Amino acid sequence: MDFRIREVRSPQGAKKLSAERAAYFQLMQQGLSNEDACRIVGVNPKTGRRWRNGRRPSGRNKAAPPVRPVVPPSSSSRFLREDERIYIADRLREKATVRAIAAELGRSPSTISREIRRNRTVGTRGQWHYRPYAAQARADGRRPRPKPRKVHQNPELWDFVQAGLDRRWSPEQICHALTAQFPDRPEMHVVHETVYRALYVQGRGELRREVARALRSGRTRRKPQRQANCRQPRFSDPMVMISERPAEAEDRAVPGHWEGDLIIGKDGTSAIGTLVERATRYVMLLHLPDGRTAEHVRDALVTTVQTLPGNLARSLTWDQGSEMAAHKSFSIATDVPVYFCDPASPWQRGSNENTNGLLRQYFPKGTDLSSHSREHLDAVAAELNGRPRKTLGWETPAERLHKLLAA
What we know:
- By secondary structure, the chain is an alpha/beta fold.
- It is built from 19 helices and 7 strands.
- Helix 6 packs across helix 7 (109-119).
């Protein structure tokens, strides 16, 4: 590309040189040196270096900050581009915050922070500067694969790891022991993922049995740790989350929306199902004498829900326990949709959690729950439904349910 040398050689200011600046960056991207690009555009080489590395406005230039090239937000590449690194350098010279730079580039703040920390140039006195072309060279140098592994490069480190595995320590225990025993030797510090990768890479052929003996899981291949949005679905049938539950269930204005859960007995071998109606706190108990598999829970739920009037069977909210794997067949049999709580969010079934605490007076933890008969469960539910509740204005759940049905 051929640009005309400026005819007006007097100082023009940053804003008036915006076209020349844009042309300068186009020439630099084509591989020209700073001197050649400045000669073609018609500016001093020092001006080109200031455009490339940025400069903090001061004195009379404070009112006219340098014009930066527009960098479109990155959406396709996981790696920073060279023009993004130039943009980071310009903004750092202007004392912009990491979060502001990240927002302007459409990147995560941690990406920008990590880029500055890893690729900055540190001087002899400890001061540092971020130089975009040097940063790009460092990033390109790190990218080729495969790389030599830290554990294999250091015989002393590998011997320590091997000794820990012989003592049946986990990789995480080994890494903490390394930090404690060699606090001032960073070359002896690794994270447990590094140890895992070293083991699985060497675990080929005859070494597979050795690796399987060294790790408690017995696996000879690494199981990837997926991000939350990449994990496999909990059940084969898609779940409908609680965020899609009708508003009438949230404000407890309409009866018929239930919360459910299991209380587990001794050694996890027995269970009792609990159902609580959100508007009235009315309780129903599921008899599970044969176990708590998905099929057993589904059959007990179908039997119980089919005893209710149609206007009292509107929805069911449950946690993501494996006992609800047959939720779709339950909904088909009863025409009652099932909504699932978010992981580790028991407060989304607050009425049910509170009722389970009350039921522990009758079914203490560590006892065999399969010994209770259907008649005994009905008696316990009747006693709870006849107990006055403060949240109901000291009415009982049975009285409140009767009023709602009459209305």
